[in-house]
Amino acid sequence: VQLVESGGGLVQPGGSLRLSCAASGFTFSSYAMSWYRQAPGKERELVARIPSAGGYTNYADSVKGRFTIPRDNAKNTVYLQMNSLKPEDTAVYYCSTWIYRARSWGQGTQVTVSS
C-alpha cells in the first residue's frame, strides 16, 4: 500500500488549494478514502471521508461548506479541494485508508495559511 500526497504549500487566508493523493498497491476503487490533518500540538483529526464508489461524503464541522473530497477511481487518486482557507486550517494533511485491518497513511503534505 502506498499513498503519496502532493499539492500543499503556503496560501493566503481566503485562498484555495487542491491536495492530491495517488494510491497504489491495492484495489483503490474498493476502499473508502479519508483525509486527516494534524496541527502543531494537536491530535490528528478526520477532515473528510468518501466511500469507495463515491457518493455520500462526510466532513468535519470545521470544514463543511469549504472543503470537498472528490475521487477519480480511474486515476487511483483522491483529492481534497480546500476553499476559503483560514489560518486555523494550517496543518500537515494526510491521506489514509483502512485496509488489511490497519490504517495506512501517506507521508503528509504541509498546508500553511498565512498572510
Could you give the topology of this structure?
Layout: E1 2-6, E2 9-11, E3 17-24, E4 33-38, E5 45-50, E6 58-59, E7 67-68, E8 71-72, E9 77-82, E10 91-99, E11 102-105, E12 109-113
Parallel strand pairs: 2-12
Antiparallel strand pairs: 1-3, 3-9, 4-5, 4-10, 5-6, 7-9, 8-9, 10-11, 10-12
Record keyword descriptors for this entry.
12 strands; 115 residues; mainly beta; single chain; five-stranded antiparallel β-sheet
Which structural class do the helices and strands define? mainly beta
Rg: 13 Å
Measured between the Cα atoms of the first and last residue, the distance is: 37 Å
Number of helices: 0
Give the SSE order as H and E letters.
Answer: EEEEEEEEEEEE
Q: How is the main sheet built? A: 7 strands, mixed
Low-confidence stretches: none
> Which percent range fits the helix content?
under 10%
Number of strands: 12
Shape: globular
Q: How much of the sequence is in beta strands?
A: over 45%
Protein model, in words:
The protein is mainly β. The protein has strands spanning 2-6, 9-11, 17-24, 33-38, 45-50, 58-59, 67-68, 71-72, 77-82, 91-99, 102-105, 109-113. The strands form two sheets. Strands 2, 4, 5, 6, 10, 11 and 12 form a seven-stranded mixed sheet that branches. The N and C termini lie far apart (37 Å).
Summarize the structure.
By secondary structure, the chain is an all-beta fold. The chain has no helices and twelve strands. The strands form two sheets. Strands 2, 4, 5, 6, 10, 11 and 12 form a seven-stranded mixed beta sheet that branches. Strands 1, 3, 7, 8 and 9 form a five-stranded antiparallel beta sheet that branches.
